[in-house]
């Protein structure tokens, strides 16, 4: 397997792309969210890490630096907690420029005929209700302050094909893209952009816990089915896509689903 350095904290051109901006990232205590929080901070943003993993979240904020980051407990299935997280951010830092709705769970892995619908409800609550609450309250805060903000939602390649994830997860990620597309006109009237990022498989703690394998083994598995060889998809690559959509480099891009899959969904059709 080829190796790759994701360079999630690199800033080779010395240009801070998010200087002075304030971001909330849900699900930022680990995995893709953590990589994105670190990259945003490296590019000058102040980052609020919103998660339910308190110990991990506080540790990430401390390692980034408490002058550039803070932790806020937030269960995205509880709209009140999302609203309080937005209020906390605006109250502490005076503004909100970026909302990255990234919190997610895998959910039940069974097919439709054997699916536990209670677990389906939980999966939809995290991905769909949580994303809707994040969009709603971030956009309200941005509208109130006149901020031409950026909202980013984490979807998945599973939202493009039906064979790349469990049924409940696939359903939820389709809905995330639907939410994003439905919000484009409403938010655009206030100068607010909204987009999705859809990564292929990354060896996150969630993926590793599901498989029971070490990160290197999970990366090997994903690499085996990857189309683009010579590079291994890591959280830092996904974070770079989020950085682009969060920054002014994408100031006229809204309603887009940015796929980070090395061509898998183009080549491996169902």
Automatic annotation (TrEMBL):
Top-level EC class as recorded in UniProt: oxidoreductase
Listed EC numbers: 1.1.1.145, 1.1.1.51
Keyword set, alphabetical order: Oxidoreductase
Name listed for the protein in its UniProt record: Short-chain dehydrogenase/reductase SDR protein
Native species: Dioscorea alata (Purple yam)
């Amino acid at each position: 397997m080829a190796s790759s350095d994701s360079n999630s904290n690199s800033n080779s051109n010395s240009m801070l792309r998010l200087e002075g901006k304030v971001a909330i990232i849900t699900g930022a205590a680990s995995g893709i969210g953590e990589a994105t929080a670190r990259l945003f901070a490296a590019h000058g943003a102040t980052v609020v890490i919103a998660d339910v993993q308190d110990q991990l979240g506080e540790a990430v904020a401390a390692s980034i630096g408490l002058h550039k980051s803070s932790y806020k407990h937030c269960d995205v299935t509880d709209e009140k907690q999302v609203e309080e997280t937005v209020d906390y951010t605006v109250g502490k830092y005076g503004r909100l420029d970026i909302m990255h709705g990234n919190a997610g769970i895998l959910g039940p892995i069974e097919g439709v005929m054997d699916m536990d619908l209670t677990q389906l409800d939980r999966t939809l609550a995290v991905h769909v209700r949580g994303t809707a609450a994040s969009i709603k309250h971030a956009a309200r805060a941005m509208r109130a302050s006149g901020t031409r903000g950026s909202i980013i939602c984490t979807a998945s390649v599973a939202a493009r094909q039906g064979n790349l994830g469990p049924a409940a997860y696939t359903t939820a990620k389709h809905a995330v893209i639907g939410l994003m597309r439905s919000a484009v006109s409403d938010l655009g009237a206030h100068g607010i952009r909204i987009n999705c990022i859809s990564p292929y498989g990354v060896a996150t703690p969630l993926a590793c816990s599901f498989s029971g394998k070490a990160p290197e083994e999970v990366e090997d598995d994903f690499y085996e089915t990857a189309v683009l060889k010579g590079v291994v998809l890591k959280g830092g690559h996904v974070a770079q896509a989020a950085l682009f959509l969060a920054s002014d480099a994408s100031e006229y891009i809204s309603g887009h689903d940015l796929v980070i899959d090395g061509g898998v969904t183009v080549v491996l059709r169902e």
